Description:
The chain is an alpha/beta fold. Helix 5 (154-164) links the parallel strand 9 (143-150) and strand 10. The chain is built from six helices and twelve strands. Ligand PMT binds at residues 14, 32-36, 74, 93-97, 99, 127, 129-131, 146-149, 161, 165, 173, 180-182, 204.
Amino acid sequence: VPAGALGGRTVLVTAGPTVEPIDAVRYISNYSSGKMGYSIAEAAAAQGARVVLVSGPVALPAPEGVEVVPVKTARDMLAAASSVFPAADVAVFAAAVADLRPANPADRKLKKGRDDAALANVSLTENPDILATLAAGKRPDQYVVGFAAETNDVLMNAHAKLKKKHADMIVANQVGDGLAFGTDDDEVWLVTADDEVLLPLMSKRDVARRLIEVVARHLSRPGA
Ligand code: PMT
């Protein structure tokens, strides 16, 4: 693809974990470092796109030329992503969103001794699915990429997620054994309705560059 292939385009990226408070000092979260999503934002900006990166709490600097919207919970992430999505030509959902959150977070610190029952019985409730919610209302001119982190049956689960979440592509990575979460490198499949392409183990920055190339090529097709 030519340099600047995403000039004039807007790209929305979600990245990092979400954190879901239990009380004033405790939370539920996961091991996402944000490296994958930040690399995608960087690669899209390098191709000339306007990039909005909605990010859970991570320890990474903002990529050059990228607008970062920091969020904490899945519900914050949905609100921030929803306000950008209508303007986006491309949306890439790389965040590891907590599927569940504590139903009744305490706004003070729960104390051992006094709040033992509350600490031992944190009841959970389902978070909104950001990708599924937004992709369900996507226009034909918008291209939506989801991720799938799987421990087994990677391709089968990726095809199921592609349909269920209304995505145009799923980037599927195997997790476990020190893979995917927190690493610098990743091996992924790019899964669409009629294609499966393996990107062998490479840096997340290279995965991101390859993904952005494929997306840019798709957008430049006649009729796309
Ligand atoms: O951040 P890193 O350390 O670099 O790690 C990268 C990564 C492993 C987090 C990334 O490559 C990845 O796989 N991200 C998705 C992880 C995940 O939560 O997968 P999932 O199978 O649970 O979710 C599937 C898709 O739905 C994802 O696009 C996810 O962003 C989206 N989703 C899921 C749940 C939810 N409530 N809202 C969502 O939008």
